[in-house]
Structures are given as C-alpha cells and as structure tokens.
Amino acid sequence: MSLFLTYGLRNLFVRKLTTTMTVLGMGLVVFVFAAVLMLAHGLEETLVDTGSPDNAIVVRAAASAETVSIMSRDQAGIARTQPEVALKADGTPVATNELIVMVNLSKRKNGDAGNVIIRGTTPDIFVLRSGIKLTAGRMFTPGTSEIIVGKRAAENFKGCALGEHITSALRDWNVVGVFDAGGTGFDSELWGDVEQIQQVFKRPIYSSVTLRLKDPAQFDALKKRLEADPRMTVDVKRERQFYTEQSQATATFIRVIGLLVSIIFAVGAVIGAMITMYASVSNRTVEIGTLRAIGFSRTRILGVFLIESVWLSILGWVVGVIAASAMSLVTVSTTNWDTFAELAFSFALSSRILIGSLVFSVVMGLVGGFLPAVRASRARIVESLREAA
Amino acid sequence: MAASVVEVQNVSKQYHRDKVEIHVLSNLSLSIPEGGFVALMGPSGSGKTTLLNLIAGIDRPDSGQVIVAGTAVHSLGESQLAKWRTRHIGFIFQFYNLLPVLTAYGNVELPLLLTKLSSKERREHVETALNLVGLGDRMKHYPRQLSGGQEQRVAIARAIVTDPTVIVADEPTGDLDKQSATEILDLLGRLNTEFGKTIVMVTHDPRAAERAKVVRHLDKGELN
Questions:
Q1: Cα–Cα distance between A95 and A125 in angstroms, integer?
Q2: A77 found inside a domain
Q3: CA dist., res. A220 & res. A237, Å (int)
Q4: Residues on chain A touching B110 (C-beta within 8 angstroms)
Q5: Would residue A56 count as lying in a domain?
Q6: Residue of A nearest to B56 (CA)
Q7: Which residue in A118, A113, A105, A189 sits closest to A151, CA to CA?
Q8: Beta strands in chain A (DSSP E)
Q9: Statement to judge: residues A196 and A149 lie in one domain
C-alpha cells in the first residue's frame, strides 16, 4: 500500500478516542442511509418477485392495483381464451380469474388493525405460480369457506394460523393451509375460492385475470389485441411490471423521507469529521512544516489530509454497513400505499446500496476534511517548524 | 579555491510582531564554497536560523539575493521552490522531526516519494542511507523505539537520501546527550570530508562548532 495511504490511516490510530467517536458518528449516518435504502429495496424486491416473467395480468384500464380494478365475467372469459394463453393437458387455459377484497384483522403483536387482502382464486393458481408451495395443511376446497394463508400473514395476524379461523362478511373462514411464496407479496395474503368470495362479499365481478403465456415474446401481440378490443377497456401488463409499479409510491416515500433524515444526520457527521481533522492538523503543525520543508507542495499536503479524512469515512462506512446488514434479519409489516393493504417485507442489501453508501460516506469525509486540509496546506513552513521549539 | 555553492548577497529580513518592526538580518552577505562546512553561532535572536531558512528556501528575504547551486532561490515560485528543496536541500532539525507513525524506513523514504524513482530504486537508496548512518538493522523501528541519537541519525539519513547539494542543520546536537552529540558530529564530519557534502550548521555548542571548517558569528543580524 502506498506510504501516503498508510500514513493517513496510522495517524487516525494515534488518536484512538477521537477517531472512534468520529467513525461511530459517520457509521450511524451510513447505517441510517443504508437501512432506508434497504427498506425501499426490500419492498421493491418483494413486489417485483411477486410477478412472474411468464405471466400477463389483465386489469381494468388505468387501474394501478387490483383493489381498484373491476372486470365482468364476459371480459374475463374473453381474456382467458386468447390464442397466446398457454393450455393445460386437458386443453383448458392456464389462467385464474381473481377477486380482491380487503378485510380488517388484528395484529398478533399489538392488536392494532391492519388491512389484509383476501384473494379469491382457483386451484390453478399453483400451476400459474409454480414457485409457491403449500408448507402446511392442504389446499382449500372449492365451494367452501376454507382459506389458505401466506406465511407472513399467518405469523402477523390473529386467527390466521393453521387450524384457526377469521370472521368476515358474517362468515367464519377456516384456515386449512399455509403457503410459502418465497418472501413475495403473496405471503401477506389470504386465498379462498373465488366463487365463494364473490357470493359472500356480494361482488359478482373479478378484479383481474392472470394468464400464463405460451411464449413471453407473444406478450405484445396479446396486449395489442386486448387493449384494442372495444368490449374490454383493459390494461394488459407483464405481471412483474404490474407489481413493480405497486411498490413505487411507498418506496419513493421511504427513500425521500430517509434521504432527508440522512442528509440532516450527515451535517452532524461532517462537522464531527471536520473537528477531528482540525484537531489532527493542529496537533501536527511540526509534521506539516517538516513535510513542506523536505519538498511536499501545498497540493500534496492537501492530498495527505484529504486521504486521512477519506479513511475516516471508509471506517465509518464499514461500521455503518455491518450494522445495516444485520437489519436483513428484520421483517417489517406496513401498509402499501398503492393497494392500502398490509405488506410484510424484509430489509434487503444490494451491491448498489453498498456502493451508494460508500460514495455517500466518502463525500461526507471529503466535505468534512476539506477545510482542515486547506488550512494544513496553507501553513507557513517557518512558523510551523517553530512549534517544535 | 572551490566555487561558491551558496551565495547570500546583501540580504535583509525583518519581522513584524505586535506592530513592532524587528530587523533580523541587515544587508548580510555570505559565501560558502562547495564542500564547505560552516557553523553559524550567535546569541538567541541574532538571526542564525533565519539565515539558515533563507539558504534552505523555506523563507524569503525582504531584499538581496540568495543563490544556491546556481539558482536564485528568492525568485522561485512556491511550487518551484518545493521541487528545488527536494533536489538540493537536506534538512536536519534539533528535535529530529520524524513522523511518529512511520518506521525509520518510511521516514527516510519520504523525500524519495517526490522523485521519479521506482520502488526498487527507492529501497536501494533508503538502505544505503540507513546503512551509512549505522541503522541498517533498525529500518522497521518506529521513532518511539529509538534513542534520541538514533532518531537524529534517521533524520540525517532522510537528509542525505536524495543526495542534496547542501545539508542544513539547525542545532543538530541541541537535544542530545554528550555521547550521542559526539556520534552525530562525527557523522556530519564524515559526510563533509568523505562525501564532500556542503553543510551549514546553526549551533550554540562550541564543541559542535569546532568540527566546522569555518565558524561565523552573528550578532544583531550582522555577520562578524
């Protein structure tokens, strides 16, 4: 490693206490910054993975979520009989007509109410979404008041564990199975027979039709035909894109608030770094004079102290990222503002967040170290050397 | 007679302290031949260190000329002066001024980082310099692990590693016991006699001054 780099790092270890305090301060800011991005990324990842690249979803035109979409039985029938839709061995389409209703349930943790999606669907949903597995119990029986629940819904809401029941629309719904949707948005849902849901909730419509394409490349043809059909008035989207869009409002909100908080914190951290670096410059007046005397230019002295400040920020980044990565173990449950339904998701770290937080930290270091470095570079050699006497 | 390597001509220097004008050097001239060893003596405040600083190019005269190794030092810009110092001046300070976080090797290597030498060439130069001052076995030691005399020898190695034209030493034995001071003076003597280095040394110590070929006394900014 270059002598200049080791010189900067070793100088930090000479002043252990102030270096530690500054690193912790910067680490805290990096932690907040990274954790916020991880939260938003976790939300996006959860919803993006909810969609499958092989599937298309048909909703009412301009509906941003299934909760605000209405399709008639006739429209659903037209959608599922398009030539691009994959067929099962028996010749029926791989498609589900689904109805979304919202119920209000109490959270296990604190009894607070939360909106939970009940998805009326058909057993074909497991063909359409092959990544989802029943992990306990069995599939609901069509024509009954049985439901199966996502694992996060089972953990978070009262009455949702296997063998329990919830009451809604004057009907008891018995939980007969728990499924694992791999951390996607479906894990926060309850699923029952769509015909039962329509009758009990008195909603003789569908919210959406989800279709498996024979070939994902045929999506454009399907979309063009259905959206141009005067009987339909629908939007056709790739399922993955549809769910990604559902994360945007909440993810953007988390990012904006989080970044504002991070920037406010960062001002404090920058001042901390500045104080540390000013102290470093003051304590090393003779060193600066010596370096200048043996031929170091003002620019090199500036560089020496900026490198030291950047080391501070890198150490802060390491502390912050380690703390933030521990947040990956945490699952949060909150309302998705696009659907107004409760959604559970985890903090998710990505290489982009690692690089982004490193850049953020280094910028803090450079800003905090700049003025002290300028002061060091402007020191007069003779006066600096006189301090040794 | 050897050509002058240091020419100080009609130099004056004054400082302002609390609105009071202090004349440190008044119309002073000095000539030092190549391979010379000059000791500057005089009471505190007589201008010895100021004269040394002017020769070393870390201070500028108010009037007059300072020509070292054929370069008019007083007329160089800030960055030119920094490069010039790397090439022509080796510094030895009273309190050694080693960087505490670097090893003896690292301290001696510092001036070479400003040159275009490769890593291998730098290593050769550093090892030669440290062997010359008798510290070839202390390369990995930090200053805190060395005695005062050893620290000053590392500082001398740092001063000579670039093979400068002039070595300037400001009270090089001022912080050392008698034994260590003698070793340092022996070393400076060797550099002058064996290697032909031009040395300008400020000292209060008559025993140190005895080692010089020429002793000049300053008093109230004038040379006697």
A1: 8
A2: yes
A3: 9
A4: 3, 291, 294
A5: no
A6: A293
A7: A189
A8: 55-60, 95-106, 113-121, 133-137, 146-150, 165-168, 171-180, 190-193, 208-212, 234-238, 331-336, 341-346
A9: yes
The tokens for B114 are 């400003």
Q: In chain A, how many domains are there?
A: 2
For chain A, percent helix, then strand, then coil, each to nearest 5?
A: 55, 20, 25
Q: What share of chain B is helix, strand, coil (3-state, %, to 5)?
A: 40, 30, 35
- Contact between B92 and B170 under an 8 Å Cβ cutoff? The reply is yes
Of residues A261 and A46, the one with the higher pLDDT is A261
pTM (global) more than 0.80? no
- How many domains does chain B fold into? 1
Same domain, A206 and A93: yes
Minimal Cβ distance to A287: which of B86, B89, B99 = B99
Distance of CA A194 to the CA centre of its chain: 30
Residue A380 shares a structural domain with residue A279:
yes
The residue count of chain B comes to 224
Give how far A276 is from chain B: nearest CA, Å.
17
pLDDT at site A362: 96
Helix (H) or strand (E) holding B184: helix B178-193
- pLDDT tens profile A16-64: 888 898 899 999 999 999 999 998 888 888 777 777 888 999 999 988 8
Instruction: Work out the minimum CA distance from A358 to partner chain B, whole angstroms.
Output: 27
Measuring CA to CA, which residue among A223, A210, A148 is closest to residue A179? A148
Host domain of residue B193: 4-223
Report the DSSP pairing between strands B89-92 and B71-72: unpaired
In this structure, are A7 and A108 located in the same domain? no
Q: Are residues A29 and A72 in the same domain?
A: no
A10 at interface of B, judged by CB pairs closer than 8 A: yes
Per the structure, the complete domain to which residue A340 belongs is given by 3-48+246-386
CA distance A149 to A139: 10
Q: Which amino acid is at B71?
A: T
| A10 to B101: CB separation less than 8 angstroms, yes or no | yes
